[in-house]
Amino acid sequence: MYGSWVGRAGFGVVAALLLAGCSGDGEDKNKTPAVSQQPKEIDPYWVNPDGNAARQVAEYQKDGDDKNAELIRKIAAQPVGEWIGPDNPEDEAKGFTEAAAKADRDALLVLYNIPHRDCGQFSKGGAADGDAYRGWVDKVAKGIGERRATVILEPDAILHLVDSCTPQEFHEERFDLLKGAVERLKQQPNTKVYLDAGNAGWSQPDALFDPLKRAGVDLADGFSVNVSNFYPTAASKDFGKKLSEKVGGKHFVVDTSRNGNGPYTEGQDTWCNPPGRALGEEPTTKTGDPLVDAYLWVKRPGESDGQCRGGPQAGQWWPEYALGLAGNTK
User: Fold this and answer.
1) Can you tell me the distance from the alpha carbon of 258 to that of 298, in angstroms, rounded to the nearest whole number?
2) What is d(CA 78, CA 26) in angstroms, rounded to the nearest whole number?
3) Active-site pick, 50, 156, 196, 293
4) Rounded distance, CA 30 to CA 69, Å?
């Protein structure tokens, strides 16, 4: 329901990254850099020097707009999830992980292509059927190879089984596809997999325990919470710990990309491009909590949730919204 996908960088962009030969610290030496990598022990994930935010910084610099360039640099300087598209999964996964490896960093990938995705809302779509999805995941895994990667697996896929917006006839197949995806990805020696588990706004966490197990959380490294949502980190951690207690003490990660001001509570579709939001905690693996493996920016701040509140299509870069997130950040 979050409209979190994807007109993401296609293979052409990935190829351009590799041809350019990313420098060891991820910076373009020919211009004032939009990105500056954190020390690896604090945040091991790769910052894409050619992401939407970095391009926006360059555009503002070209126009002499230093104020807005500095605001968007708050986003461009952080690693964000690379959402693998439907058409060239092996090439994209290979491109992102190779670029990360050249910078001696880990890639952060998001897989969001489950059949019957998003219950027909702004990010509807996904693979045509189960076989197509299995083939797609296999290509992603081959693209990752032996390089280091963390995969966030299918935002909303389990939650949309529990809230009944995905028709019952597709439930068994989805559990099978999710578990199979975990199994296939974990064949890669340096790949971590976190199965998405919804957000702190879900009123019935007990209803998620069994679905998480059926979807293969026991085989995964853990689960993710708050993907593309706005719940505060403290609430997200409490929610994650309740789930962890019921699924064998599994660790989890929290999406902090846009939760700096918490959720929006006025009107309908409060999840879709809500006004007044802010960036949350910067990505790090130093969370101070043994159950929380990382704070991550899974949702890419500044990309639209969908065509609501004046926003463009889901996944498209929206400079005005990005400026709002950055400007509201303390």
Assistant:
1) 10
2) 11
3) 156
4) 17
Does 156 participate in catalysis according to the annotation? yes
Boundaries of domain holding 94: 11-327
Give the amino acid at 204: Q
Q: Is 262 left (phi over 0), alpha (psi -120 to 50) or beta?
A: left
Q: CA-CA distance, 317 to 300, in Å (whole number)?
A: 9
* Two tokens, residue 121: 């809302």
What is the CATH classification number for the domain harbouring 139? 3.20.20.40
Nearest to 208 by CA among 166, 169, 160: 160
Instruction: Provide DSSP, 187-198.
Output: TSTTEEEEEE--
48 in Cβ contact with 80 (< 8 Å): yes
Domain membership of residue 3 (yes or no) is no
HEC string of 2-68 equals: CCCCCCCCCHHHHHHHHHHCCCCCCCCCCCCCCCCCCCCCCCCECCCCCCHHHHHHHHHHHCCCHHH
C-alpha span between 30 and 183 (Å, rounded): 43
Which residues does residue 149 pair with via DSSP β-bridges, in sequence order? Answer: 107, 191
Give 83's strand partners. 110
Those residues with Cβ within 8 angstroms of residue 262's Cβ, 6 or more apart along the chain or in another chain: 230, 231, 232
pLDDT tens-digit profile of 201-239? 987 889 999 999 999 999 999 999 999 999 999 999 999
Per the domain annotation, does 170 fall within a domain? yes
Total structural domains within the chain:
1
Beta bridge partners of 317: 303
| Per-residue pLDDT tens over the stretch 139-171 | 999 999 999 999 999 999 999 999 888 889 999
Asked whether the beta carbons of 104 and 24 are under 8 A apart, the reply is yes
Q: Is the dihedral of CA 30, 33, 35, 36 positive or negative?
A: positive
Task: Spot the catalytic one: 91, 118, 196, 255.
Answer: 118
Ramachandran class of 264: left when φ > 0, alpha when ψ lies in -120 to 50, beta otherwise? beta
* 305 is annotated as an active-site residue: yes
